[in-house]
From TrEMBL:
Organism field: Tamaricihabitans halophyticus
SUPFAM superfamilies assigned to the protein according to its UniProt record, in alphabetical order: MFS general substrate transporter (SSF103473)
The protein, known as: Putative MFS transporter
Keyword terms of this UniProt record: Membrane, Transmembrane, Transmembrane helix, Transport
Source lineage: Bacteria, Bacillati, Actinomycetota, Actinomycetes, Pseudonocardiales
Membrane topology according to the record: Multi-pass membrane protein
Domain Major facilitator superfamily (MFS) profile: 21-441
Length: 459
């Protein structure tokens, strides 16, 4: 007799059932992108209002991204305690409240404190949203659905650019304060919509709430129109607790399974997002420094994020055509080259715009492929923690990118050499992937995770 979780995994995909959860979860991911992108637009405006140096302005992004790193770490464990649905809504509520507080900040230090707290809230969106969407998605389409979640990122970043650029034309308000408030309104609407999302039946079973789980599963069976025989609830298992001991065991398990795979995962996540966040965060300031007007600088940044939507769709096609490693290995270094050439040709506006557009497209070939690849490298028992820790490492690294970039690299090395240094680090991570981790295209997940990479598996 099938268990309830097997029934959920074998149901047919229906847009009115699992698709609604995918859309609502994806909108949370979209706000993550919106908020991260907004840092770049806020920095030159806040710096001008409060007379900040380049290094001081970097704290706008650093405080927010460090908050997101902490949130990504905390909310996964919180969701195991209070439930996916409740955490699903609380992340956005916390983000919205502290974003409003940030818009009302009287000074820069208070503003950075509220940006940090807003980041803690929004940082939980990715692990919580991916967990909830994954637990409702049929197994046969889960890979495509979770990969498709990434398309919400360039959509959110582009919407941020469009709204922020439009607000520059409004002269009777503090533009940066209105940019924060404009983001909060749809986020609060999404918070209200999320209240209608059912709790994950897998979570309900683990918490001993069997009748609630049975009701949710039965509703899904009816809504999808599936014919299901007799089934039973799986055995209740205690939910993991967020403790120092469990965190240590989790980390130890990842490195014990395969030091090569874990080091590849962390190195790729760290270097790819160093490159991406470095460009995304500083591009408006770079262009403004170069003599572009704020409107033109914001438009060019919006162009970079908009072409990324096409990049995500192409990446979803390429990963199954040529393999995850080839997509990451080729597109990652090419994205770095595009960014270096953009910096070299900043004095030639047409060429610079072309190169930043190429970077925006190519880097969005890399990121979705990286998400799919790392989530496939670990066995089932370690998959969520393996991906989560790689993501947390990238968030922590990205959190210090604005500060290091604005205070040390850009002022002393100049833009071309700064991007070249990051590109070299990314190239080294790609070379390590080539020799230390297997290709996952066309292989069963348990087969990939059950054995450390061999030379045959590598090639």
């Amino acid at each position: 007799m099938k268990t309830g979780d097997q029934v959920v995994q074998e149901l047919p995909w229906r847009w009115k059932t699992q698709g609604v959860i995918f859309l609502i979860g994806g909108l949370g991911f979209m706000f993550d992108a919106w908020d991260v992108t907004l840092n770049g637009f806020l920095m030159p405006l806040v710096a001008a209002e409060w007379g900040l140096s380049t290094g001081e302005a970097a704290w706008v992004s650093t405080s927010n991204l460090i908050g997101m790193a902490l949130g990504a770490f905390l909310w996964g464990g919180i969701a195991d305690i209070v439930g996916r649905k409740r955490a699903f809504s609380l992340t956005l509520l916390m983000f919205s409240l502290f974003s409003v507080a940030g818009a009302l900040s009287p000074d820069f230090i208070t503003f950075c404190a509220f940006r940090f707290l807003a980041g803690v809230g929004l940082g939980g969106c990715i692990p919580v949203d991916y967990a909830l969407v994954g637990e409702f998605t049929p197994a046969k389409v889960r890979g495509r659905v979770l990969t498709a979640m990434d398309v919400w990122w360039p959509i959110g970043a582009t919407l941020c650019g469009v709204v922020s650029t439009a607000l520059l034309t409004v002269t009777f308000i503090d533009n940066w304060r209105m940019m924060l408030l404009m983001m909060v309104l749809p986020a609060l609407l999404l918070f209200w919509i999320r209240l209608s999302v059912p709790e994950s039946p897998m979570y309900l079973v683990r918490r001993g709430r069997g009748e609630e789980a049975r009701k949710v599963i039965q509703q899904m069976i009816e809504r999808t129109g599936a014919t299901v025989g007799e089934w039973r609830l799986p055995e209740a298992q205690p939910a993991p607790r967020l403790t120092v001991s469990n965190v240590a065991k989790q980390l130890k398990g990842l490195w014990r399974f395969s030091p090569k795979i874990t080091s590849v995962s962390w190195a790729l996540f760290l270097t790819v997002f160093l490159l991406y966040y470095g460009a995304l965060t500083w591009l408006p300031s770079i262009l403004t420094e170069q003599g572009y007007g704020e409107y033109a600088a914001f438009m060019v940044t919006t162009l970079m994020t908009a072409v990324g939507i096409i990049g995500v769709l192409v990446s979803a096609w390429l990963v199954d055509l040529i393999g995850r490693k080839w997509v990451i290995g080729l597109s990652g270094p090419l994205a770095a080259v595009g960014l270096v050439l953009f910096a070299v040709q900043l004095d030639v506006p047409t060429a610079a715009k072309w190169w930043i557009g190429i970077f925006g497209f190519v880097v969005e070939l890399t990121i979705p492929a990286l998400y799919a690849y790392v989530s496939e490298l670990y066995p089932t028992a370690l998959r969520a923690s393996g991906f989560g820790w790689a993501s947390t490492v990238s968030r922590i690294g990205a959190g210090f990118v604005p500060l290091i970039f604005g205070s040390l690299l850009w002022p002393h090395l100049g833009l071309p050499l700064t991007f070249l240094v990051i590109g070299v680090l990314l190239g080294l991570a790609v070379l390590w992937m080539a020799v230390a981790a297997p290709e996952t295209k066309g292989r069963e997940l348990d087969e990939i995770g059950s054995e450390p990479p061999t030379q045959d598996a590598v090639h």
